[in-house]
Design a protein that fits this description.
two-stranded antiparallel sheet, 617 residues
């Protein structure tokens, strides 16, 4: 390929925005599955009872601690320890060794405790003068030079590590130095901060094998034990009723080895009245029991088995199903689909670990399960037909996993088999694989009437050119009126442009093509192209680019394409640039604001305040 015919890169991750509600509101989707469960959602939804929580002491002002811990000053006190735990496990270690981030915050806590002792019961640091400043200055990492009490006196760095912490934490060193220069007293409120903890401190302190953690408070535990920090963060992301239930059964100690899995895939676990609310509802509880090896009614055993099974892949599968809509859950958990889809998903993972790395695995599974479409008979939708998908898989068999599924595709006779294959392929990290093709072409079919869906031949053409043209396909999803003929015209034009051997001519042709297609999109979005003429006008815009072999032909083709577009919207074929800009401003408005804008454009046209014409390079 000489020059890729691509627009700015657009990732399929954008489709995940459709799942934002589930990501922001854990349990909101699966609670709707069970009416009985939803009755109890408010029991602990706002806050955990005070009897279930302890307050943890953080030495010094909270503002300074948040600066050193890399936490926003705007967070509520309830979130401080959870965000600290997250930062510790995520940024505190590299290859099991403490990072500079963790070393600095640990040093700061020790310094703050020394200052807390100096502040005493009144929580106020008091320095009457130079003779009284020695201890404070030493803690801050400085020393007194000769001339204390004189105008030109300055503090001198004695311990660079402590001095850095003093400056970085926001201690008022300048005010201290000015007071020592003038010989006036220095006072500074240095109160300890109290922040709520998840459960009781003792629940966490007893988990760690670290000697320092066992003799300190929860703050020391989180700073010294990344496994406890990760479990703390994972449970902080669950709703309160669920986290309390998990603390009681199976208990924090049994959950500790699965902290990473609970972090990645545990936020959607919901326990209501001692029962795990499973995707699909109570009607599929027996299927989940068979998959997990424990009944949802025994929440502690169910969660332990869920996290422990298949290196975290069952937890990932459960998490994905928990995030999709109620309608999708009903389809996806229908017997025997629930177990069959997990079976292929697990086999495709092939013994790998679901928590290796810093991001959850198989994000495309969530996209697939969110966007899959269903036929009236309950079968998953197949763009084109099964035969063309067999061909697509044969052509895309460039990975070991894909090749293993190609063998199965040869004997396909049911749409269910395509869904199983796409579920298996969701474990492959790819931008242009069969799953991405399937998701894109399914999206193109979403807004189309059954009689106007993509034909098998169109599906084949779109799949063949997917790696080069997939970002252009968004226009076909936006305008379902563009049928097979319109798509074929587009393919023909792009093929011609790609085959132009002259690099400069090819670049100019691609720019002109993109520009005219962009103009068509703007006018179509604004309703200036009638719905009944969308497909016809589209073909008239793109077809002139099928005959380009010289700069002269390119000019003529671009002019013809633009003229056809202008005629479609009721303008003159030889409209001026100002008239074209006026068209792009949208249809004439009857509102006062619209009339003012129209008057402004008319005056610009009258006095020649127009944008310079765009030309070819």
């Amino acid at each position: 390929m000489k020059s890729p015919l691509r627009l700015s890169p657009i990732s399929l991750a954008g489709w995940l925005c459709l799942c934002i509600y589930c990501l922001i509101h854990p349990c909101s989707t699966i609670q709707a599955v069970s009416p009985a469960a939803s009755e109890n959602t408010q029991s602990l939804a706002t806050k955990t009872p005070a009897s279930k929580r302890d307050n943890v002491t953080i030495p010094g002002p909270l503002r300074s601690f948040l600066r050193m811990a890399g936490i926003s000053q705007k967070v509520s006190k309830d979130d401080v320890l959870a965000l600290l735990a997250r930062n510790v496990y995520l940024r505190g270690y590299q290859q099991s060794s403490p990072t500079e981030f963790l070393i600095l915050i640990d040093r700061y806590v020790n310094q703050a405790r020394e200052l807390q002792v100096l502040a005493g019961a009144s929580s106020t640091i008091r320095v009457a003068g130079c003779d009284d400043a020695g201890t404070l200055v030493h803690i801050l990492g400085y020393r007194l030079r000769e001339g204390c009490g004189q105008k030109n006196f300055t503090l001198e760095t004695a311990n660079p590590e402590r001095a850095f912490l003093t400056i970085d934490s926001g201690f008022p060193l300048v005010e201290l130095e000015e007071a020592l220069q003038k010989g006036t007293p220095f006072t500074y409120q240095y109160r300890a901060s109290r922040v709520p903890a998840l459960f009781h401190e003792g629940d966490w302190i007893g988990l760690s094998q670290n000697a320092r953690a066992s003799s300190g408070n929860l703050l020391d535990v989180l700073l010294s034990d990344p496994s406890v920090a990760r479990l703390y963060w994972a449970l902080a992301k669950t709703d309160d009723e669920t986290s309390l239930a998990l603390r009681d059964s199976p208990g924090l100690r049994k959950l500790l080895p699965f902290g990473s899995i609970l972090d990645f895939y545990g936020s959607q676990i919901c326990i209501r009245s001692g029962r795990v609310v499973v995707p699909g509802g109570e009607s599929v509880g027996a299927d989940w029991k068979e998959l997990v090896g424990a009944s949802p009614e025994k929440s502690g055993e169910f969660v332990t088995n869920l996290l422990a099974k298949d290196n975290g892949w069952l937890a990932a599968y459960f998490d994905t199903l928990s995030r999709v809509s109620r309608t999708q859950q009903i389809h996806l958990t229908e017997a025997p689909r629930l177990k069959q889809l997990y079976d292929v998903f697990r086999k495709a993972a092939n013994g790998t670990n679901a928590v290796s790395g810093v991001f959850p695995k198989a994000p495309d599974l969530l996209v697939l399960f969110t966007r899959i479409q269903w036929e009236p008979n309950g079968d998953p939708h197949v763009p084109g037909n099964l035969e063309v998908w067999k061909e697509i898989l044969l052509q895309k068999s460039d990975s070991k996993t894909v090749r293993s599924w190609v063998k199965r595709a040869r004997s396909w006779d049911r749409p269910e088999q395509l869904l199983e294959t796409m579920t298996a392929l969701s474990s492959i990290d790819s931008d242009n694989g069969p799953l991405q093709i399937y998701l894109t072409l399914s999206e193109l079919d979403r807004g189309r009437q059954p009689a106007n869906r993509l034909s098998a031949e169109t599906v084949r053409q779109l799949a063949d050119r997917f790696s080069k043209l997939n970002n252009w396909y968004l226009v076909f999803a936006e305008f379902p009126a563009l049928n097979d003929a319109g798509i074929a015209s587009f393919m023909k034009s792009t093929d011609v442009i790609e085959k132009i051997s002259n690099q400069t001519l090819r670049g100019n042709a691609l720019g002109a093509f993109q520009a005219t297609v962009g103009l068509w999109q703007i006018l179509a979005r604004q309703g200036q192209i009638p719905e009944s003429e969308l497909n016809t006008s589209w073909q008239k815009v793109v077809e002139p680019f099928t005959t380009i072999s010289s700069s002269t032909q390119l000019f003529d083709s671009t002019q013809k394409s633009l003229q056809e577009l202008l005629l479609t919207v009721g303008a003159k074929a030889d409209s001026s640039q100002g008239e074209l800009v006026e068209l792009l401003a949208g249809p004439r408005q009857a509102t006062p604001d619209g009339l003012r804008e129209r008057h402004r454009i008319d005056r610009e046209n009258q006095f020649g305040f127009r944008r310079p014409a765009a030309g070819f390079s």
